[in-house]
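The following record pairs a protein chain with its ligand, fe (ii) ion.
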Amino acid sequence: MFIKELTATEFAKDPRLTADSVLLVKDAISHWPAVGRWTPSFFARQCADIRVTVKYFTSAGITSQFLSMKYFVELLQAFNENPENRDIAPYCHDVPIFLQNPDLIADIEAFPSHLLPEFYRANWWEYVQFFISPSGATTPLHFDTLRTHNLFFQVMGDKDFYLIPWQDRNKCKRRGWRWFDCDPSASEDLCQLESSGVTVRKVKVSAGDMFYMPAGTLHHVKSNADCISFNLDFHNKTSVLKSFMGIKEGMPRTNLFYNWLTFRALFLGMDRSEFFKKYRSYLNFIS
Ligand SMILES: O=C(O)CCC(=O)C(=O)O
Ligand SMILES: [Fe+2]
């Protein structure tokens, strides 16, 4: 797996994503008002009553709750006072924040929508999924369920991404469609992976950075501080076609619906608002 790291100035000379390499652009978004302004307490004040999905990635599996932002931030602060039990790290995970509070878009200055396929550019903010996590919170190894590309923005704190290429997915104790029973940040599991010929790459993504993972990249993500991030999962024509091969590997039927819809959007020029009416539920789809 090829990993490119560029400064914002270097990236500005050739601002493109290439599907065969992971890309880290240092300080690409440091100038956004959100960087510096957005903190958990800011969200507790500005978005107190919006309802957010709070996930717990425990050793026994994933559980989730639907809570107010204010209450989630109280849980995060309580966890920070007593962080020993990682199993109860509350993680505000995959929240379509700009649909819930469009005023926040004003804190994003010059979103790089030119990096996306034309279809997504005008309404990029509709597709955003947002994350707030305490230090120590971990999203276990997985790939993104529709097998989309992932453009990721780190607004506060830093995260370690442990990355494994798509081609190695069946060497990593795969469970169902997209989860994996191994922890590439733990030395024992890492040794096992390496002895099966899997190379794990670690990338630190810090506040102000933009990060891109090509479709299907496996990632295990650990927060090293209170973190705020958001991503945008998107397809291009190549990735949406490849996504249909997931049928042979146990991809859920619901995914087939969203990928078929996206196929129609990208190949057949479906109307944007018609598309989004049907796609909207994907943003609350836990899989
Ligand atoms: O930041 C995280 O903990 C998870 C991020 C992730 O899985 C994603 O962006 O798809
Ligand atoms: Fe992911």
